[in-house]
Fold these 4 entries.
Entry 1:
Amino acid sequence: MTDTAPRPTLEAVAARAGVSRATVSRVVNGGDGVRDILVERVRKAVEELGYVPNQAARSLVTRRHDAIAVVVAEPETRVFADPFFALQLRGISKELTAHDNQLVLLLTEGRDDHARVGRYLAGGHVDGALVFSLHLDDPLPELIQRAGVPTVFGGRPGWSGDRRDVVYVDSDNRGGARDAVRHLAGLGRTRIAHITGALDQTSAVDRLDGYRDVMADADPRLIAEADFTPAGGERAMRELLGRCPDVDAVFAANDLTASGALRVLREAGRRVPDDVAVVGFDDMLPLAEQTDPPLTTVRQDIEEMGRLMARLLLRGLDRGTPREGAGDTRSGVVLPTTLVRRASA
Amino acid sequence: MTDTAPRPTLEAVAARAGVSRATVSRVVNGGDGVRDILVERVRKAVEELGYVPNQAARSLVTRRHDAIAVVVAEPETRVFADPFFALQLRGISKELTAHDNQLVLLLTEGRDDHARVGRYLAGGHVDGALVFSLHLDDPLPELIQRAGVPTVFGGRPGWSGDRRDVVYVDSDNRGGARDAVRHLAGLGRTRIAHITGALDQTSAVDRLDGYRDVMADADPRLIAEADFTPAGGERAMRELLGRCPDVDAVFAANDLTASGALRVLREAGRRVPDDVAVVGFDDMLPLAEQTDPPLTTVRQDIEEMGRLMARLLLRGLDRGTPREGAGDTRSGVVLPTTLVRRASA
DNA sequence: GCAGGTGGTGAGAGCGCTCTCGCGCCCGCG
DNA sequence: CGCGGGCGCGAGAGCGCTCTCACCACCTGC
């Protein structure tokens, strides 16, 4: 672990190029209004000295940081057990990188961390925040909103209904759910059950709503509540089999849940899809491809969600490519989903 | 997206508390050498004004940033397809948070990004870096080392043999592999095969070495090369069955590979574990629990690896709890693994 | 009772950058 | 040939903080 050598300053570059600090600064920041001869000379000096601007000094005066916080509130390990989070992060990273912004990651667990995150964001260390608010009762979004930091949410926050200034990006959970259920209906299934996700999350609520859109007059006993986990899926599937032995299809709120349901179905001697067809949600790989049978599911473009979140935020900050998809700063952007047919339905 | 209000400065707090800037600064940074009466007065003023120090201004003079870069070089999506990365990140995040450091995430893909990362690190925006170098020929580690930023590597870098100043944290891949193979041997298996990982990664090489430690005089045809993917596992397993039909056990380089192997074995009508016992590596959940049969595998404490990396780096920077596990700044730290017995072996 | 600490405080000089301003130069026009 | 107006550049004032240093009590010891 070596110490970093003393880095050359603007002053040094200026001296070497035989110009003033101001001119070097202009060149470094685009070089408008400087004669080509000088631009060239300064560039050369920068090169030779290996000059890199001191971001701290720059931020001090510009009050920008070219840094965005990504806040992932996840008391449970769920987010970590699937690639969802990582993919979104990657989309975000790509977009931020393309616009020369840094990504400051804040992972929170438990209430204690909320204050810390609030303080950090209020502290003006970053220009904006991307926040994943997964739970309806999560105080974090409110807290962040209050910190006065420009924010884009990943997933519809629970309270967005009453606030038109909330910007978020979400998948079309409801539409995707409708597609899944319609697909099952199209297969001739009539006793289509739904295993819900954790209903304190908007995604679970929206998927349930989608199910209801299609199955308006369905037997309410065909709905079993679970929590997005395989174990929850198993439990719910057992319930379902006990309650409605004639069930011939299941739409599970996500692939993990579906995998649990599949296992119970197999144990119960029900053939999939012959006896019971199963559809999941997420298209979580490799899981969805490797269940037995491979899972028909609803795919969402997670990486694109991340990218879009970043783009929206940057645009709100007057960064990013101007007018690209002009005026698209609607408060909520919903990305389409697609049904991926495999063997389970 | 509201604009942030003008924040109070040290000066403002000083005025309100009736002291000098210097005194406020002292209080904000611990309050040593200031009378309790004044400390109290300053604290009150800070509270009332909602003062938060301007990190940019502070960094400008202290030359510290209390920020650590986490560099994840991953051209392939592999890292994103499993929770490995996320868990490690979480461990890192916990440790950094505990010491009030920020986590700047740099994801790279492809050669172009290397220069960008190098520039960023050399730019002195962060105090140190945690780098995941997964490939033997990755130029990134060298590049980073040259940038003169204190660095801890995740996973043994390929070239660490010749450089004693390289600090890294790794799992005991070799020892874990030995345990796995010994376990299979203990089951009375004699034709134990190994499906390797991508051999341009040290973890794959080390696991292969562990296999060889136990199976010194094994039939070389029992070794099939794969790449950590399920598809690779399938391919290798087919090869193996063709080459050595009498194979009675398989140690796969990771769980993904093992899952592919399991599928091929099932198709081939071999019962697991009766005909062929299978052991994986990683204990990747939920996959490992949900294969058919559930996978016996080698677990590594991934979160702890992350935490340890952060701790080592912070300690190297003279931060972190002093003397905690004194003098433990060895160049390489290897974490133990444990065999998790499930049904497949 | 005075030299020599000692512990608490404030004044002030930067850290490296941006940005406003004004000055000089050269152009075009009258 | 003189004068107004750009345009290109440099001087200098900060941004908000830390940290050294000098200063001013007050306290100890001879």
Entry 2:
Amino acid sequence: MSQDGAGINLETSLGYLLKEASSALRAAMEEVLRPLGMSVTHYSCLELLAQRPGLSNSELARGAFVTRQTMNVLLQTLEREGHVTRPAEARVGKVLPTRLTPRGRRSLEKATVAVRSVEDRMLAGMTETERSGAFRILRSMIHSLRDGNDSA
Amino acid sequence: MSQDGAGINLETSLGYLLKEASSALRAAMEEVLRPLGMSVTHYSCLELLAQRPGLSNSELARGAFVTRQTMNVLLQTLEREGHVTRPAEARVGKVLPTRLTPRGRRSLEKATVAVRSVEDRMLAGMTETERSGAFRILRSMIHSLRDGNDSA
DNA sequence: CACTCTATGTCAGAGTACTGACATGAGTCA
DNA sequence: TGACTCATGTCAGTACTCTGACATAGAGTG
């Protein structure tokens, strides 16, 4: 079914499957984070800050895969709510290093439990070998997409 | 680095890597589709219709991983621009089967070429064995995320 | 020093996708 | 037949993310 030469067969397209998997993951995460009043980007930002305190707005944006404008708005909200702190003025350049407050850390802890349950569920039924295989393949895809631009 | 027991280590999280890969794919697709004035969802809709003519609004929404409200708005735009056609009234129930117009098909053809180049680039450096492995693993992740709700 | 380039933080506006809500049609069951 | 459930199409409002634009700070170069 579906003429082969014409379009991209969605049934056998790895890109389509990747989108489907990502969509399912996002939906599952939103589901468990919603009761905590937290979005995926929201959570990503806090988790990044827990592991690498002092990250700047732009660095957080890259880590959460959004633009720095989007992250800027989110940080303003988080700061207003008392989850993170930023110095009023930059010590060097324009970079404002961000840090979690105790309140932000508590908020993150609950979210981490929720997200970990999703991650565990996703990994269920996969062997260790398959997991490392998935890692290698995803990294390969990312690498090929990133710098395959200029070489055509 | 980064206390192990506390959070989810983003460096070794398959979920994070999946998000990164999906983000890279989306960015690459947007880049090649933008010159054609087409978004990823836009393209997904046309490709779905090419392979399965007569799909309803809700079916298209599920296939493109958006809500049916979002797809409805998109279909209204596509219909206004003459890329798709829908009957004014449903022959059975409320379902309005959608079909590509010749114009929509021409538009899709150009997009397909662009998207195929991205997909090819993504698959570059992967063996056939790795490709089928990636398929199996992604399907496993999707399956686990979908119906792992109630059993937990 | 002056010039250029790059990166950053930020504001404003536009676009996209979502949730909520309503009416309608089909199927099931008593 | 009537009540109930489910899926669909659609409208309206909201939330999130993006692009565009600007000013500023540091590095490199003449």
Entry 3:
Amino acid sequence: MGRSPCCDESGLKKGPWTPEEDQKLINHIRKHGHGSWRALPKQAGLNRCGKSCRLRWTNYLRPDIKRGNFTAEEEQTIINLHSLLGNKWSSIAGHLPGRTDNEIKNYWNTHIRKKLIQMGIDPVTHRPRTDHLNVLAALPQLLAAANFNNLLNLNQNIQLDATSVAKAQLLHSMIQVLSNNNTSSSFDIHHTTNNLFGQSSFLENLPNIENPYDQTQGLSHIDDQPLDSFSSPIRVVAYQHDQNFIPPLISTSPDESKETQMMVKNKEIMKYNDHTSNPSSTSTFTQDHQPWCDIIDDEASDSYWKEIIEQTCSEPWPFRE
DNA sequence: AATCCCACCAACCGCCGTCCA
DNA sequence: TTGGACGGCGGTTGGTGGGAT
């Protein structure tokens, strides 16, 4: 399979397109369509290679291209789809009418990727970075993530103050770590950041081979899924399979018996199921989570966190060498 | 005012898969 | 079956503009 000589030909112009060149290309395609891209430059009177013409047309001149900043919806869609598809920019672009793969790729690399990194989230795996010793150092990022959630949480199913959620979830994860030091080898703040986003990990939301909770379906249907299905509220149902996981953000005291906790878990699962089948039940779902967040005063100062961190650090740290 | 630095993004590069003679 | 032509894709580059020093 030989390489195309297209752009290797000498004498062809490279670099930025002039308005005249653009106009020639537009006029030609309007009249004749693009046909063979290789033949097009000659027919259109352009001293460019076909590839360059195609790129210019598909990425810039096409009439259906949407200009301007990405909306919050588009940004969330990109993040969701990227967590599922990886760097399949053209596939992602297929879900964003008017956006090109190149534009999305650029936007990812210049904006979203940095945002995720700042939040302590690996932009490749969409999971918290596992260098857990940095978790505490990443507190500001986690809180920033909570604010970011405000931007992304378009469903508005969760009405809680995002910072409260972040604090509660972080504390929640810390407790889990300290109580699970025999079974866990890493500080899993996955669930924490899941909820910071107002939804669980996109990977967990979808039935696929990476999702240990749902192995009944494959990925083949993904491209057919309506976009709406990519945005979902916190998915409590997943926790029922995680025996080691403390029920998330529920109104139970830490002293409650395991049995009671299981009852609450089941209640939450039922509530979630009800919530998903009946969106009007949002308020119940939200209100029932309030007490947990009340535990953590929104106005808690730095001393509050200092205390937690000091306590945490004074405990036998399961991950220290 | 000059210089440096950095973010952004259009455009290029090179590889891959498909089509077809 | 082979290999050239072509379109498509993802990674990378380099020009540009704006802010900082």
Entry 4:
Amino acid sequence: MSIKQQRRGTGSATISDVARLAGFSPMTVSRVINGGGNVKESTRDAINAAIKELNYSPNPAARSLAGVEPIRIGLLYSNPSAAYLSEVLVGSLDRASRIDVQLVVARCEPPENYREAAEHLLERGVHGLILTSPLCDLQEVVDVVTEGDQPVVALAGGKPSDDLITINVDDFEAAHAMTKHLIGLGHRRIGFIIGSPIQAASGRRLEGYRAALAEAGIPADEKLIEQGHFTYRSGLAAADKLMDLAVPPTAVFASNDDMAAAVVAVAHRRGLDVPNDLTVCGFDDTAFASSIWPELTTIRQPIAEMARTAVDMLTDEILAHRAGKSLPREHRIAAFELIKRQSDAPPKNSR
Amino acid sequence: MSIKQQRRGTGSATISDVARLAGFSPMTVSRVINGGGNVKESTRDAINAAIKELNYSPNPAARSLAGVEPIRIGLLYSNPSAAYLSEVLVGSLDRASRIDVQLVVARCEPPENYREAAEHLLERGVHGLILTSPLCDLQEVVDVVTEGDQPVVALAGGKPSDDLITINVDDFEAAHAMTKHLIGLGHRRIGFIIGSPIQAASGRRLEGYRAALAEAGIPADEKLIEQGHFTYRSGLAAADKLMDLAVPPTAVFASNDDMAAAVVAVAHRRGLDVPNDLTVCGFDDTAFASSIWPELTTIRQPIAEMARTAVDMLTDEILAHRAGKSLPREHRIAAFELIKRQSDAPPKNSR
DNA sequence: TTTGTAAAAGTTAGCGCTAACATGCACGCA
DNA sequence: TGCGTGCATGTTAGCGCTAACTTTTACAAA
């Protein structure tokens, strides 16, 4: 007796296996998978059960060969805050390749060419877009990309709205937690450097800071709050002003790492030791945070994870759209993490 | 008369179109494409001509469906010098997706888990590996990944050898050019901070520096040369030593941007203006270079382009390997660029 | 000339999936 | 009873490619 050798095949389950197990034809299975209509509820359930049992997932090559247009997602970035970008890329690529979605990455530098870059992507036929920070906070950019009817995800930024799916950490809670951490160390005069006013997160971070102070019963001192623009240079200026105060802060919480690094630079220039004379902490956990010395205590956003989520959500939207349905725009909140490094310590006088 | 509507199909040429045009069967075309043997020279030429004329390229989905194992390339990185990483990713992904090669990205942090990470990739069935800096300079890592018979490309680092394909800028020429630039500005006492001794590029950069000085007839002063480790912290120490010299340098050329940033920090701490009191320049053009102030004059390696090349070379190797042939290990040199920003100026006394 | 043999080419079938069409069936209405 | 109507499912064929097998051709040895 000869066992017929399978000539090819990956060994994993096929749509026919599922069909056989469920007792229907492959076509019906296909309909269930692709959200097609006209399938009885009980049939759908039986097929889904079979899919689960066989741990089946459709072969993307066969699918695309059979004429289904593969899902393409555009990723628009600018301002290579490089650590951020690489996390975005690693996360989104990882997920995209796993679920066989094409990712088209494009750089754009507002205000010059954002329109062009966006149109370029749309021409390439993308079915959805991911907008990374700080693009999501530029209203013109958002307007351009939401003109069409492709779904758009704003990653770490952007105002939740009906046009935009957003994925963010809770900036308020994160800033609140960091401020509370500083208060816990014994600090009472805590300087704050606000981020760029055009980014929505800046305001939320400021409020988190204020709220933590208020909760601890520490009176707000507006002189301790300086405006910055998320740049190193703006951090230098803000830090100088803070350190020139009659009673300077014992800790400075900057709204991002670039500005925090600038605070460290200013402190050093003035002969202050970080963290013993001045505690400094940042936000974002970019490469900066761990490449300067001392390394910064900061807030980490799970960017890679958020990027993965972005790809998933877009894909769901696109599939729903293809099936003629429509999903409500979701607004996800991801969990942040307070990364404690070497730039924070109790204030001097409290020891 | 009814024109039969094509139900599906992408519209682009298929292997049958090529076969028809060339006057052979699709199978023979397939053989030509896949480097199979037993095709007459004249046939091969005719088919290649037809391929060119129709601008044909095989449909990857159909190919993979027909059972050809898709090419998978592993990319190993560590030490997220993030700008570098993002360039590597953008470049390699761009090319990989265009030629339909799968890229499997993995992080590894020697000395803990490099073996594990490498083995993990190999288990995932990658057919070739890209090793990014600084991994390519760790002999243990290189040993592990070259154990098998997959081809390995060292990107921006590594010693050219029979085991390793390398892609580098000419570190000697680049350091030479930068030093010459400084001499051209009028500097005569130029400090140099050497990179990590374990990376081969460090030595080549030092030699470039020495050669440029020698050419200009400037006597070498060993006190102006300090050892560093490519880290910010090592840059701080080296800069302090240089600035403590009886006759300190008027310019410092650090072997990477992190150390150059540290030199700027030390200068500021000592009340020196950059570039008016001290010229500082770096190497690599990482994010650091343009996020601190003043922005660094530095050497840019075309990392994205080099990454693209890496993917191409590996793919060629893998295809050659599959066809039973073997290509010699190549060692490519890419063109660097001297990026002039705001951290260099003529020395004070020369004005 | 016949035959053997290897090189060069062609044929067949099938990878897994889905579009288009076909069918079956229940239900309501004339 | 017959007949449309619409839902639920099945059948057929083909997407583009290549593995495995078969056939043809070229050419040398018998």
